[in-house]
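Quiz preparation item.
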């Protein structure tokens, strides 16, 4: 599949790996794909992100991702669902952090060991890559660009899609920024 990636899409995937390495993460997650997209200059996805104001609000995006990491990767919808049955996720996070330190639920970061070589993609990233292919094919595009990766991030339920939506970047708004009003929704991959 990578032979179908444009130079920008390859740079995004490489940037995601670099973000994982810099933070000493054991895997490359969807969060790193988003951060790599925000790093890009030129190209369709950076244009859409700038048009939607996300490049100007990068600090806010990073803070929202950090907060989700602190919650153990649970989305706001997950927290709300737990609250509906009487479970206060904030209180649980606080108790865990009292015992095990700040960011204890943050995943696989933290220098337990130095990684050398290959960092695997999470199952979520693999789904994003597959979905980006389906989006590209659905649009009639021969190659997978960084814009398809961005659309796949918005279309895949989870923390990154929630953070993007909180900042005004839904599948529909990104599609509109990329393709104009006529492109919104026509190519959304449902699964």
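Solution:
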């Amino acid at each position: 599949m990578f032979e179908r990636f444009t130079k920008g899409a390859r740079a995004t995937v490489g940037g995601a790996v670099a973000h994982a390495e810099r933070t000493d993460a054991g895997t490359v997650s969807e969060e790193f794909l988003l951060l790599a997209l925000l790093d890009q200059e030129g190209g369709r996805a950076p244009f859409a992100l700038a048009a939607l104001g996300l490049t100007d609000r990068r600090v806010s995006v990073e803070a929202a991702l950090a907060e989700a990491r602190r919650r153990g990767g649970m989305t706001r919808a997950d927290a709300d669902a737990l609250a509906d049955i009487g479970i206060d996720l904030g209180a649980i996070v606080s108790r865990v952090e009292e015992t095990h330190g700040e960011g204890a639920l943050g995943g696989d970061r933290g220098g337990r060991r130095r990684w050398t070589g290959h960092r695997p993609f999470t199952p979520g990233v693999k789904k994003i890559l597959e979905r980006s292919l389906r989006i590209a094919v659905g649009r009639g595009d021969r190659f997978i660009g960084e814009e398809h990766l961005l659309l796949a991030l918005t279309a895949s339920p989870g923390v990154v899609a929630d953070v993007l939506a909180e900042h005004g970047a839904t599948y529909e708004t990104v599609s509109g920024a990329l393709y104009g009003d006529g492109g919104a929704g026509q190519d959304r991959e449902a699964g």
